[in-house]
Amino acid sequence: MKGTKLALTACIVSALFAASAANAQFHLPSLGTASTTNSSSDALAAQDQLVKSFIASQSEVLNAQSLLAQAYGLKDQAAACDAQQKALQSTGTDTNALQKTVDVSNSANEAIAEQQAKQTTLTAEEKEYYAQSLPHFAKGVLGTRDVVMQAEKFTATAKGSMTGMSGLTTGLTKLKAGAFVAKSTPSYSKNLFDVFRKTMTISQNNGVKVPSDATQALAGL
Question: Where is the signal peptide (predicted)?
C-alpha cells in the first residue's frame, strides 16, 4: 500500500512539472513562484476552480463537435460526443471521466478535421449545423483559453504546497484531477484551436452567420 501511494505521488508530481513545461509553450504571463507557506487548501481550491472550468468548457466543445460531426454524417462521433457530455455532468472530478472526455474530443477533432480537409463547400443543411455549432464552439474555445491560464496558476500553487513527504503523500493524492487537466490541456487545446480556426474559415467562406463571440474567440488565438 505504501509503495502504491508513493508511486501515485510520483506520477502526480511528474504531471505537475510536465504541466508547467507544457504551459510555457503558450508564453502566458508569469504568475511567479508560489510560496511554500501556501496550504494544501489553496491547491484544492485552485483545483476545484480548474476542473469546474474544464468541465464547463468541454461541455460546450462536445456540443459543438456533435453538431459538426452531424454536418458530415459522422453519426458515431456525434453520438460519442453527446454521451460523454452527459457523462461529464454526472461524474464530477473523476479522473477517468476527464481522460475519456479528452479522448472522445480528440477523436472528434481528428474526424472533423479530416472531413474539413476534403470538403470546404457546404450544403444548406451543413451550413445549418455549422451555424448551430459556432456559439457552442466559441464558448468552448474561450473557456479553454481560460483553463490554460488557470492550469498555470494551479500548477504553481500545487508545487508551492509541497512542504515535505507528509504533504506529498496526503495532499497530492487529492490533486489527481487538477494535475491531469493541467498536464493535458496545453496539447489538447492546440488541436482544438486548429479545428476552430478551420471551422471559422469554412463558415465565413460559405456565408454562415458568425456570432460576435466566435469572432472574439478567433481573434484571441
Answer: 1-21
DSSP code for 24 = G
User: From CA 209, how far away is CA 127, in angstroms rounded?
Assistant: 9
Q: Write out the three cell numbers for 221.
A: 488565438
The answer to whether position 172 is within a domain reads: yes
**154 domain-assigned:** yes
Integer Cα distance of 13 and 10 in angstroms: 5
User: Three-state DSSP class for 128?
Assistant: helix
Give me the residues of the chain with pLDDT under 50, please: 1-11, 13, 17, 24, 26-38, 164-165
DSSP 162-187: --SHHHHHHHGGGGHHHHHHHHHHHH
What is each CA distance from 15 to 81, 140, 198, in whole angstroms?
26, 24, 31
- Kindly state the DSSP code that residue 94 receives in the 8-state scheme: -
Range of 73's domain?
2-23+38-219
Distance (Å) of CA 123 to CA 102, 103, 159: 30, 29, 51
CA dist., res. 54 & res. 215, Å (int): 21
- pLDDT, tens digit, for every residue of 63-93? 999 999 999 999 999 999 999 999 988 876 6
Closest CA to 89 of 119, 120, 62: 62
The pTM is what?
Answer: 0.80
DSSP 130-141: HHHHHHHHHHHH
